[in-house]
Design a protein that fits this description.
207 residues, 7 helices, elongated, membrane
């Protein structure tokens, strides 16, 4: 008489899943994985401030640049961190397993870059008119928009690559991408965005 082991196998699988979910959602797991990157995010904010403090010449020569700079940082954080979260969810669901011509991967990255371009255009124009409305002198809508687009799209491209590599890499090493990618992208995003703003301002001044 054959012994049916299907029930035992099913019970074992349920126990494994429950154990994984319990560890996945534990305070210890969340703190252990996220804390180092949260500390890095804080340090990254300080580094971004140092870069901004070294842009005194550009801020003086391009009126209105100081108005759009925080918005560029915020835009990058919103778009790139959202990309990281979506990638983490897609990886958990098994929709993305590696870097290839995966429609899910391509659509997420393409959507992020397209949003970066659109919001950079809006930001440059809005920054000009808000600067004027506040009674301050502006370098002009074209100048501010050009800086916003150059900085926004270039930093968006860099951070998209970083988000993909980081999400897949962390998952393969046994980390939860949702705990790691967002604070890491926030840190790298602030630094990269400030560098791109600085370089974009240099380019505009040379034109």
């Amino acid at each position: 008489m054959a012994y049916d082991t299907s029930d035992e196998d099913e019970d074992y699988e349920i126990e494994v899943v429950e154990e994984y979910i319990g560890d996945y959602g534990s305070v210890r797991s969340i703190v252990r994985e996220a804390l180092p990157f949260e500390l890095m995010a804080t340090i990254g904010g300080v580094i971004s401030g140092l870069i901004l403090s070294g842009m005194s010449k550009e801020l003086e020569l391009i009126p209105g640049l100081i108005v759009i700079t925080p918005a560029v940082l915020g835009m990058r954080g919103n778009i790139s961190c959202t990309l990281g979260s979506r990638l983490g969810s897609a990886i958990h669901m098994g929709l993305i397993t590696k870097i290839d011509r995966n429609p899910e991967l391509i659509n997420n990255v393409s959507g992020s870059l397209f949003l970066s371009f659109i919001m950079s255009l809006v930001l440059g124009i809005a920054g000009h008119f808000i600067t004027i409305a506040l009674g301050m002198h502006s370098a002009g809508a074209i100048t501010l928009t050009l800086i916003a687009v150059l900085a926004g799209v270039s930093s968006g491209l860099i951070l998209s690559v970083v988000a993909v590599l980081l999400a897949l890499g962390m998952f393969r090493f046994g980390f939860d991408p949702d705990n790691v990618v967002t604070p890491a992208i926030a840190t790298i995003g602030d630094i990269v965005s400030m560098i791109m703003i600085f370089l974009a301002a240099k380019v505009v001044l040379m034109i």
